[in-house]
Amino acid sequence: MFSNENKIRSNAVVFLVVTIMLALLFDKVPTHQMDIYTFLGLLLVTIFAACYPLKYGQMERINIFWIMIPVLYLYGLPLMILYYQLAIFAFLLISRMKLGNFSHYPIYAMVFFVGPLLSYTIITIFGFEFDTMPFLQMLLVNCLFYAIFALFSGVVIMTLNKQVKGLNLVKYKESLFGEVLSSIFFVLLGTALYTNFLMYGKYAVVGALLVYIITVKIYRNYDATLQKSATLENVMEFQVNFNDYETQQQITKEFLQKVILVTGAKQVSVVYETEEHFIFNNAQPEKRYIDRFQLNLLQKVFAENKIHYIKKRAYLQMEHWLETDIKTESLLVIPIDQFDHPAMLVLESDALFAFNKVQVEHCKLLVTAYKTALEHKSVIEETIYKSERCALTNLYNYRYLTERIEEMELQLVQHKMDNISAIILDIDHFKRLNDTYGHENGNSILKEFAAHLQALVDEQYVLARYGGEEFVILLPNTTSDEALKLAEHYRQVIETLSFQITVLERQLKKEMAVHVTVSIGVASIPEHTNKLSDLITFADKALYVGAKQAGRNRVAIFK
User: What 3-state class would DSSP assign to 508?
Assistant: First the structure.
């Protein structure tokens, strides 16, 4: 990446070279005299047209060729190129680019100097002169001139587009129809302007300018309508399909892709604020560490809770502040309300003035759809969670257990699993605990017992409340010997635990600790059965016959 000093030096060199070549061109190529008022008038029209371009999709079509046609025929090629060079400076200055950031000037200068010169040379070689001629012949010459110019520009753009970040010229492949249509319009308008300029002078320029403004306005309105329609289709598609996404993360990923599609942004993130840091969510949530200046900006956005559109000149020290590999020129920040924690949508672009009011409105529509999708998914996930969980212990319930048994049974049939073991635990003398200390304390013991058990059991196993004070653990790919060792480990740990309860003694509440023991039954596939439906039954039998009847507080395996 070149420093600003190197950019200034290279721009100065290009400016000097272009000036010298233009002076030589004025000396070698004949020109016709132009009065100062005509020069300034046409210059103002040229600058206006350069800064009020056609627009289709995410691109703007800057074209002043319709003004250059009468300049070429009446005053010569050198003045045409001079107008192009002045228009370049006007466009870049009005775009508020500082001299140190004039990084695209050499490309524009080369294209708009060599392009017209090349077209002029080729046409004169074929014997045509840029003088008064029949309208159709003139139209053909102008079309040929423009075609050569456009072909040269296209080759330069395709060659440099991947090497120069932020180059915001026309991408022919993405806008072929609009390019052809606008080119025909510009050539026709320019040819008509020249023929009428001979008769009506400055009035012809005013008339052509009005036609240009009206045409651009109609084109922009039409393009805005198409863009809004496309956005609404994207929003509708997003709303219709969000039920297909299994997780909220998938919804976020699809949402970010839709935002990129609608705005053309280079980087899009959903940013969450927590007490300690900001989380940037592109595809996967991740922590980012940012400096104090960047932190203050993000905190300001969250505090004000309003849309911010920041241009590069407002945060020159923040280049790459999102740790991306692009050179950020425009930054759009849109708050996202109704979250469990504050969030915002952050859009980055390497183009100047990349986001307009229409795109902001489109993003707001997508944000609304995104929030609805997340809320809907959250409700569904909460409903599923509650349907699968025991309300008291927050462990999986019997319904979920049977579903997992069916899934594992299918895996056994498909030979994706060879061993499955089941462990059933039952709290010893739990009825006595309820009768002695009350059901409220009994529930408190169950809840705390479940929490301890959840901490003991590995996540790869399925832990569920089977009913009352019984708990089941399904252990896929676990042999009977391995299950027996695990069961004994659980029993020993539980035996050492104490559970806090509150009892009423002489009208006073008193805290006390109680201890519990468990009896455990174990059964396995294929050691004891080949049917998963029998596995729980056999483990339950081992629990009552081998453990309970043998004195409790022990582990028994099915025999």
Answer: strand
Percent helix, strand and coil across the chain, each rounded to 5?
60, 15, 25
**What residue ranges in 366-447 does DSSP mark as E strands?**
420-427
Q: What is the DSSP letter of 240?
A: H
**Spatial CA neighbour of 81 closest among 162, 19, 160, 16:** 19
Residues in contact with 152: Cβ distance below 8 Å, sequence separation at least 6, in sequence order: 111, 114, 115, 118, 119
Which of 53-57, 211-215, 343-347 has the weakest average pLDDT? Answer: 53-57
Residue 396 has pLDDT above 60, yes or no: yes
Distance CA 550, CA 528 (A): 21
The pLDDT of residue 348 is above 60: yes
Q: Show Cβ contacts of residue 400 under 8 Å, excluding neighbours closer than 6 positions.
A: 388, 389, 464
Select from 56, 267, 62 the least CA-distant residue to 174. 56
H/E stretch holding 472: strand 470-476
Identify the residue whose tokens are 């000037």.
105
Q: Determine if residue 166 is left, alpha or beta; phi over 0 gives left, psi from -120 to 50 gives alpha, anything else beta.
A: left
Burial of 419 (0-12, 13-18, 19+ CB in 10 A): middle
Distances (CA, A) of 48 to 43, 45, 57, 88, 458: 9, 5, 21, 12, 71
The two tokens of residue 311 are 């241009």
Q: Is the dihedral of CA 62, 66, 67, 72 positive or negative?
A: positive
Half-sphere exposure of 195 (CA within 13 A, CB side): 13
What is the per-residue pLDDT for 174?
A: 44
Question: How would you class 27 by CB atoms within 10 Å of its CB: exposed for 0-12, middle for 13-18, buried for 19 or more?
Answer: exposed
Residue at 406: amino acid letter: E
Give the sign of the dihedral formed by CA 201, CA 206, CA 210, CA 215: positive
Q: How confident is the model at residue 235 (pLDDT cuts 50, 70, 90)?
A: confident
Report the sign of the C-alpha dihedral through residues 296, 298, 299, 303, in that order: positive
